[in-house]
Design brief:
The protein is built from 14 helices and no strands. By secondary structure, it is mainly alpha-helical. It has two domains: about 180 residues, Tetracycline Repressor, domain 2; about 140 residues.
Amino acid sequence: MSPAPAEGLVPASARTSTGDVSDYIALLKPRVMSLVVFTALVGMVVGEAQVHPVIAFASLVMIAIGAGASGCLNMWWDADIDALMTRTRKRPIPDGRIAPEEALSFGLTLAVGSVLALGLIANWLAAGLLGFTIFFYAVIYSMWLKRSTAQNIVIGGAAGAFPPMIGEAAVSGSIGLETLILFLIIFLWTPPHFWALALVKSSDYARAGIPMMPNVAGPDSTRRQILLYTIALLPCGLAPLAFGFGGVAYLVVAGLSSAAMLALAIKVHVRRAGEPSSRAAQQLFAFSVLYLFLLFATLLAEHGFGLMRPLGWT
């Protein structure tokens, strides 16, 4: 597969890197990496498998490096469109601080190294899942889906949903129902989260030629789909209660945060027709991050810190 098009959009100075350590860290998308590590950690604890803490910690480090490799390869491929978007044009490659070929070598080295190391440290099921996730994000999503279909976020969201399963596989050598449910929560959370951002940044995506839902189907259709995906998300968010791995604290947190998530999605849906950017969409985008964090943090507290108080019906 050929490199990203429109290479001329990347400054000529990028052919000789002038960046420092912070620029290479930025290539790893540290905020996304932290979310991957967090959700993988929750995947490790919900199954309550017994594993040496050193192995668990080393596995998390390899999962983090693999996530960083995905982000780096994504930035390498997307350098041309990043240069056209206001929120991404100061990234290290389009801004000329890191040469594209150096970013590619950096990303590939981290990808191969993290997968091999995870296989040796934990097991090859976890390593295989990590390798597939890197491939899915860097190739299936970045190189194909992102530029070809308005369903890019829906299908591509699977890449961000795999970490809980990788975490469980690393400590138990298997994948259980609990992390399959966590996969579904993240998978269904992704469209309303990113489409809310797309409503706000639709002009940026249009300038870069990315077929995000608001630019293809229109803002009104996007708002409707945000609401529908949110309605589909909420039962999955409450599923840990039904399957016995969410306790009293999870009932309270998931119930309140789900109600707030639905209220914000409804607020986005009823906004004035034709409005591409709105305060409601910004509120939903911001709260959706908190929603996911609250659900996973509560599960981590219940299982990882012994705070689980089972519900009477489980």
